[in-house]
Amino acid sequence: MTNVSQVTRDQAHEGLVVRGVSKRFGATQALDQIDLGVRPGEVVALLGENGAGKSTIGNIIAGTFPSDTGHMTWQGRPYEPKSPGDAITHGIGLIHQETRLLPDLSIAENVFLGRLLTRAGRIDRTEMNRRAEEQLHRLGLDISPTRLVGTLRVAAQQQVEIAKALTLNAKLLILDEPTAALGGDETDHLFERIDALRKEGVSFIYVSHRLEEIARICDRIVVMRDGQRVATHATAQVPVSQLVEEMVGRSVERLFPDPGVPTEREVLRVEGLSNPSFRDVSFSVRAGEVFGIAGIVGAGRTEVVRAIAGVDPVTEGKVSVDGRVLRLRGPRDAIEAGVALVPEDRKGQGAVLDLSIGDNVVLPSLGRVARQGWLTPQRVTEVATDAIKTMTVKGRAAQPVRTLSGGNQQKVVIAKWLERKPKVIILDEPTRGIDVGARAAIYEVIADLARSGMAVVVVSSDLDEVLGLSHRVLVLSRGRQQGILPAEEATNSAVMHLATA
């Protein structure tokens, strides 16, 4: 562990300096005497598990709420933002992990929301569209700025958030999991833009659970745990194993557990599956197998599994479970056949955030868990308590899902589908936005499901995750199947060669 170097007077005059900042929410000490410095043109990584205090310090800097103690200076002057708008006026912006866009407005309208461009007293949509399109192209997103945000996938929405921030001409950007929904090419485009901006003197506080990114883009690292700064590194070239140990306070010896050996019994078969987003996809998954699906964003990964789960229509091909061809008229048909989908957007599609853990767990299985046609609160609590124990959820049956960390929310979403005893479970981006400790727990769940004999399909934009978990990997490129690789042949280079074909 290295010691924090004191920021010099010249550095303090130019950049952001945070000293002795603390914050308490009720009985929870979210931050305890945090010091942080960011120089012009510097990218500082802020690492820690969910609940470590990263978002709290980001929100204080961005003016969402004030600190209880401590002080900040920005460009050599006292800095006490009263609101996010005040922070933006000072040149400081925060890009949240969860998109905060209005789905019924266009991309350009979202980018310039609250600061619409005008000409001769009227909204200048032509200029708004032009400038929004310019930022989208810089991020490698080739879509019309007039398109409604609600029609975009999660990855594209995240890029719109980034494009919005880039139009602010900010001097310090706080990026909270900016690549969580991005694939390799999109991440590279973002990093190129960050490099260009840092050369102009723009600073970044970079929050990410993808530790392999840190060495690529960051200059220094600050590690937090339980609201305290526990380590600072003057370089980003730090072994991942060391960072993980500092973040969780213990050694995580093996991130990807052994899922066991699959049987020869085929559970899921997909033959010649096609729709407008992909064509002629064929594969099978055996009992006890973890089958990975890889490809860059836009390859059709999510579209394929949504079609298998009956969410999106199929124009050609067929899906079979245990040898029986399914008639997929909607999600209910797939569910009744034993196919469960854990969607990529757990907050928008996976969980009902304002309902309790118990209500979420029993929601897809009301007929199964009810006794003699009656579902009592006691029965809900009973079922939820068992699920909480099995999935090691940190929460109580009556606790609203909204109050849980991302990792625990994901466990609840998985638990609610396991209550139906599925034959096939499909997990789309199972660890998006989840910290290292919680990610390791989700990996254990996936391995346990495979060892229990379930057929498991995993879709992820994190290639290391797909390779670390899977027995075999299907690679998609632009909606076309490029090949299926066994684990021993599925290297990063082999997969990317197919994914970019």
Automatic annotation (TrEMBL):
PROSITE patterns assigned to the protein according to its UniProt record, in alphabetical order: ABC_TRANSPORTER_1, ABC_TRANSPORTER_2
InterPro entries tied to this protein: AAA+_ATPase, ABC_carbohydrate_import_ATPase, ABC_transporter-like_ATP-bd, ABC_transporter-like_CS, P-loop_NTPase
Highest taxon, organism lineage: Bacteria
One Pfam family of this chain: ABC_tran
GO molecular function: ATP binding
Keywords on record: ATP-binding, Nucleotide-binding, Repeat, Transport
ABC transporter domain mapped to chain residues: 16-251, 262-498
Keyword Kinase: no
Nuclease is among the record's keywords: no
The protein, known as: Sugar ABC transporter ATP-binding protein
